[in-house]
């Protein structure tokens, strides 16, 4: 879908300091060399299956289906992967690639901590050094994940600049990469940043839609009518959508974090409230003010609390191939509780945004229609925060 | 001959940097005047950005102070109009791609021409992405400055051949900020640049002392200093222009 310079329509590109240009060129060359390499792919598939526990289940949510009384609902259980989210797919791919490139050190940004934990895990597995940048605000919201990363041998650096959240962690990781390139790979966690990251991350996450397609054919003998996933930077959504882009009958729906609502400033719904801009290496949509200053976005979900969106999503929005809908904190928290009670599955608060939208549309769809919701991660990490949201203080 | 080319003629150019509006635009104006009076050959005016990814902590701090003081791109243009009443040395803008893009690149660059800005420095626009801005810069006779870094290697010739104004040679890996030592072999980088263009080279990133400035100016055509000046603003606030003037003189005397 992307041309040589990593463009998706007008989006994408490589808006980074000259200091990093040879690093991204080297990465692109290495990726192009290894992506078709049978040995590399055999090794990666081995890690996916034996270590991460793939393929992940495509589970028929019968109770939820009956309760909503409309379309059949399937859950793609990325929460069952090792480390508890889809992030491991991309991280195993990038860590293996980095290792083949002779890199000995991984750096990463993290919001909720899922990508940081996945990166620390891969680094431990492959014997690499690991440094994770995390907004100071997020280190407080996700203290347990900070502990997990340190337990796995990673160094966690709290980022105090800006809003001390995910965007600042990305900025700090980019700054770190500029100062130490030769032995270090920046393991970017989403389908964003400068080319070739949006393409590399999408390709490693595309295993999600590859599996959904195959599992759906086995279970139902046909394609689903809609695939729904949450979108921050957009990696689990891109992975869930990718192999369906050419199947026009499949509606692709990304759920953005609307925070306290898209009419106010406390939101992170980029497509719904942002406009075109250039930031973090890419041209895409960003929440920003009239002078192009990046907005201090807000969402209950630390993983969706990002002012931009990956360039391929921006392009899927421009072409109308995918639809991006806002889901508020309230709706996500209700869905978090709903899926826990109805199916006995506690989803990540990020994934709960997708569940919330499915609840809105399933009832009005015919019973022979099929919806797949990607449960991108598990919700254990969110329990304390949701309890707090409901006015209850619990000790982790 | 352009104002930028004049500034490098028969001498080593000293190019101080300041973030506009830190802590307010009156202080910036006073600091610019102090720089000119003490021998600055050209000045880099930073338009603050919320997320300056190429900056170290010192200049990040200046961006935060300036934005919380309410500076906008329009107010910076007004300040430049005011400065141009009595300042004739080249003035360049240093900012991030989104500040220009979001304002409307053509509107921004044509206003540069109109208000008397000679060049534009965008650290997040590398050679591969420059067309989007360089066409407009050519149209309005504003020099889009190119960067060459210690990691540029095989890219140096390509970048140098299309360079305008001057080439910003990045002294070290990493972001802006004061460094005790600069280890990059800048002599051979500059030599390679000179084989490909007559556009002058100025070295920036990490320079703070007169000794460092002297050493850097011996291998290049000019030196750029930012963080050391911002530190004076950090320390003295609205009283900083006097100290900035003294500092600029100490560097200018050394090169």
Describe the structure.
The complex is a heterodimer of chains A (396) and B (255). Chain A has 396 residues and is an alpha/beta fold. Chain A is 43% helix and 19% strand. Chain A has helices at 18-34, 38-51, 62-68, 87-100, 114-126, 136-141, 143-151, 166-179, 197-205, 207-220, 235-241, 270-273, 311-318, 329-343, 349-362, 383-389; strands spanning 7-8, 11-15, 58-60, 72-77, 105-110, 129-135, 155-159, 184-186, 226-231, 251-259, 275-279, 281-286, 322-328, 370-375. In chain A, the strands form three sheets. In chain A, strands 3-4-14-9-10-13 form a six-stranded mixed sheet, with helices on both faces. Chain A has a four-stranded antiparallel sheet with strand order 1-2-12-11. In chain A, a hairpin with a 2-residue loop joins strand 1 (7-8) and strand 2. Chain A is globular and about 55 Å long. Chain A starts with 6 loop residues before the first strand and ends in a 7-residue tail after the last helix. The mean pLDDT of chain A is 96. Chain B has 255 residues and is of the alpha/beta class. Chain B has a single domain (3-145, 213-249), classed as Alpha-Beta Barrel (TIM Barrel). Chain B has twelve helices and nine strands. The longest helix of chain B has 15 residues, at 240-254. Chain B is globular, with a radius of gyration of 17 Å. The A-B interface holds A 5, 13-23, 161-162, 167-168, 171, 174-175, 178-181, 275-281, 283, 286, 288, 290-294 and B 49-51, 53-54, 56-57, 60, 67, 72-74, 96-103, 123-129, 146-155, 159, 170, 173-175.
